[in-house]
Inverse folding.
């Protein structure tokens, strides 16, 4: 595990002691009160760093969601799985989310990562098959030729992304498909994120 600061160590020790005594984790307010801090922001910053460095795991959306990663534990995060992308909705809208799947915190270090279910065989030569799940890191740009999730209007697709002076090209990894070319004025085209891993159930 990565080295932590003295204050982060104090916060971690307090969380460990609190869990040992109460059998549940302290809330942000508990930690704030214990250390006499004026706001919760400092507490959240310390917890973010402890999660990032592998000392804590956290379940979003609950008040006492912290878990100490003991020796031999492997931190995981629950990452949303996006199924059908509904027209007019943000990609991560509740209506689009099929499930939440656990994934190693080492693979899902960035907040907002998600799985997208792939439809079709256009990326088979990149070892991405119909029905596979791709893990996506949200970011607005990718390097030329990287595999990205691209939103075109209300549709999301997985392709190699190329941008030129006046056009965008989306390339498949299947010789049966020709590149899809858009001029900058054709469609509302936006990079949603970069594909970082592929998961397949055999």
């Amino acid at each position: 595990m990565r080295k932590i600061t003295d204050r982060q160590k104090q916060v971690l020790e307090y969380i460990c002691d609190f869990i040992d005594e109460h059998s549940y984790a302290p809330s942000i307010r508990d930690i704030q009160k214990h250390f006499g801090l004026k706001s919760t922001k400092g507490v959240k910053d310390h917890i973010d760093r402890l999660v990032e460095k592998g000392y804590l795991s956290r379940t979003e959306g609950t008040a006492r969601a912290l878990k100490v990663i003991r020796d031999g534990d492997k931190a995981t995060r629950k990452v949303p799985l996006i199924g059908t992308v509904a027209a007019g909705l943000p990609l991560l809208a509740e209506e689009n989310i099929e499930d939440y799947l656990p994934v190693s915190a080492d693979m899902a270090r960035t907040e907002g990562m998600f799985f997208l279910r792939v439809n079709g065989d256009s990326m088979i030569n990149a070892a991405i098959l119909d029905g596979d799940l791709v893990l996506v890191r949200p970011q607005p740009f990718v390097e030329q030729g990287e595999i990205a999730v691209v939103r075109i209007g209300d549709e999301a697709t997985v392709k190699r992304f190329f941008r030129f002076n006046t056009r965008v090209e989306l390339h498949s990894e299947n010789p049966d498909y020709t590149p899809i070319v858009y001029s900058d004025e054709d469609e509302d085209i936006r990079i949603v994120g970069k594909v970082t891993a592929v998961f397949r159930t055999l």
Remarks:
- Residues 6-68 form a domain with the Arc Repressor Mutant, subunit A fold (CATH 1.10.10.10).
- The chain has two domains: 6-68, 77-199.
- The chain has a mean pLDDT of 83.
- The longest helix spans residues 6-22.
